[in-house]
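Lecture 7 notes: from sequence to structure.

We start with a single chain of 315 residues. Read the sequence below before looking at the structure.
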Amino acid sequence: MKNLRIVFMGTPDFAVATLKTLVENNYTIAGVITAPDRPAGRGRKLNESAVKQYAKSVGLNILQPTNLKSEDFLNELKALKANLQIVVAFRMLPQVVWQMPEYGTFNLHASLLPNYRGAAPINWAIINGETKTGVSTFFIDEKIDTGEMILQEDVAIDPEENAGSLHDKLMVVGSALVLKTVALIEKGDVKTTPQIDSDAIKTAHKLNRDNCKIDWNDTLDNIYNHIRGLSPYPAAWCRLINGADELDVKIYKAEKEKTAHALELGTVVSNKNEVKVAVTNGYLIIKEIKLPGKRNMDIKSLLNGYAFQDGAKVL
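Now the structure, written as tokens:
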């Protein structure tokens, strides 16, 4: 059995579950590397990452480098004398960092690699209508999410799943997979599999304003998947034209109604209980929405104080 000294690298909630699992299984965490504190909110108060908050609560040694190639940081990292590094939802590492420990640096990624390499694997799996995704551990190399795979585990995507609920499922399964991976490294039993590249590989592109916008010319299923794949964050959006109002609205939850109609695509149909949008092969029923400057609310709450006029449409 190898005597492991681990450096853990991660920033958001997704990474906390794995770090917590390692701590609770009595692994030696020599240090935790996380993002620098960021100003947030109106008061621009410094915000600590979720990983930092947890690491502080259990008394772990924390480093927050702004430059992963700086001599000061590299010296601090070497001084930790780690022989294994584990990365969960961090940033791209320079070679000098990932090559440092004797037993390598492995990453947990929230997809079944080689599919959905990149920044937003959870979102894109749902947006693309997948019924299955999973988590993978792999040794880091010089490219993004391309290293030799160690372990994978499948996770089903439910038909009404959104990115938030899938994130939470993958977080739990992923932390267990990291534990299995560490146990293999500890015993010297790791067998890796190279990732096979092909033209059919799907990518998890970074999310931006353009690819979060709803295309009302798309099919009902695709629009529905787009909305749940971006909910609760960063949220699918569109432009609402309602009389004199032109508003950018976010849609968090919807349902499908497959039926024939003769309405122009994007036409908003409403009554006192329901708002729906005419699309190619039916209607998208909006269940949860957010207007600018307001909180997100269910459609009945919105209709208590907001009226859709005849001729309202979304673009």
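The chain has two domains: 5-187, 209-314. Keep this in mind for problem set 3.
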